[in-house]
Write a structure and sequence with these properties.
The protein is α/β, with parallel strands linked by helices. 25% of the residues lie in helices and 30% in strands. It has five helices and nine strands; from the N terminus they run ββαβαβαββαβαββ. The strands form two sheets. It has a seven-stranded mixed sheet with strand order 5-4-3-6-7-9-8, with helices on both faces. A two-stranded antiparallel ribbon has the order 1-2. The longest helix has 14 residues. The chain is globular, with a radius of gyration of 16 Å. This is Methyltransferase. Keywords: Methyltransferase, Transferase. One of its GO terms (biological process) is methylation. It comes from Dactylosporangium roseum. GO terms for molecular function: methyltransferase activity.
Length: 213
């Protein structure tokens, strides 16, 4: 599949459905996916590393969590399962992906705690306790930077973003750029060629080490 399809609002490729299975939180997830969305036939390796290496929210977590570039919703599904007191915003520009997230959330019984929308539909007053993202690197550096500068400032004062980026797709340079923007960035883990970064707003001096992460 051409890379343009998954970040198009209305993918032109045929709607071929798939089932994706993976384990997280000591449970099995079975989600419906389809052609025209990101990594439609399997859990993306970067997403798998993110869910394995970054500390998932706990049952005490409240507020709003954001799955930025949600695709068919694997991160959304895990966040909703991990944090039953939180609301998960699943956003994407791909309408087919958003329909799949709605379907998967309903099947998992978490639809009442998952808000599925395009970026422009998220109220500007909503801030996020956590942001989780396997960001769409292939949209290009300019658009990627604009995307991150739009959403990272919406972290709560003590909030954290967890990002996964492949080293060979510029993970380390992205970290340097985020630091140049004033964000507090720590490399939390590396695995299988992927970098896991924690990102906090300027002025939040907390680090992974201080949090015993």
């Amino acid at each position: 599949m051409s890379g343009e399809h998954y970040f198009s609002a209305d993918p032109a490729v045929a709607h071929e459905r798939h089932q994706v299975e993976f384990a997280a939180l000591d449970q099995e997830f079975r989600l419906v996916s389809a052609s025209g969305v990101f990594s439609s036939t399997r859990l993306d390796p970067g997403t798998a590393v993110l869910l394995d290496k970054a500390p998932l929210p706990g049952p005490e977590t409240t507020g709003a969590l954001l799955d930025l570039g949600c695709g068919y919703g694997p991160i959304t599904a895990v966040l909703a399962a991990a944090a039953p007191r939180a609301t998960v915003y699943a956003i994407d520009v791909n309408q087919r992906a958003l329909d799949l997230v709605r379907e998967n959330a309903a099947a998992l019984g978490v639809a009442d705690r998952v808000v599925v929308s395009t970026p422009d539909e998220v109220p500007p007053t909503v801030g996020f306790t956590q942001i989780w993202s396997n960001p769409p690197i292939r949209i290009g550096k300019t658009e990627l930077h604009a995307l991150l500068l739009r959403w990272l400032p919406r972290l709560a004062p003590d909030g954290v973003a967890w990002l996964v980026v492949a080293k060979n797709l510029g993970g380390d340079s992205l970290r340097r750029w985020l630091v140049e923007q004033g964000f507090q960035v720590e490399r939390h883990a590396s695995q299988k060629g992927f970098r896991i970064f924690s990102v906090r707003k300027p002025g939040d001096a907390r680090t992974d080490a201080a949090l015993n992460l």
